[in-house]
Design a protein that fits this description.
By secondary structure, this protein is α+β, with helices and mostly antiparallel strands. The protein has helices at residues 36-44, 51-61, 66-82; strands at residues 5-8, 13-17, 20-25, 30-34, 49-50, 86-88.
């Protein structure tokens, strides 16, 4: 069980462009374009969530093996943390 909690962080503005989500932080000068699944993760993080809860929701919503989902989402969250879009406690 992973009890880490993920929070949105910073002053990110976002808008949908088709299925993607375009995000920008003026304060940090960062820009991100998220796929449909990345956009769903960002939506889910509107409220802080545990890493395990996030994985469980995505496995239920998408046709993906739990271990594949966990690896992909962990890598994605690391990228968001590097860009200061999320904080992981």
């Amino acid at each position: 069980m992973n009890v880490e909690t993920i929070y949105r962080d910073g002053d990110w503005l976002s808008t949908r462009v088709g299925d993607d989500l375009v995000m920008m932080s003026a304060a940090q000068g960062n820009y991100l374009r998220l796929s449909e699944v990345g956009a769903r993760v960002w939506e889910l993080l509107e409220q802080p969530r545990s890493r395990d809860d996030l994985h469980a929701v995505l496995v239920a919503e998408y046709d993906v093996a739990p271990e594949v989902c966990r690896a992909a989402i962990d890598e994605f969250l690391a990228t968001l943390a590097d860009r200061r879009a999320v904080r992981i406690d």
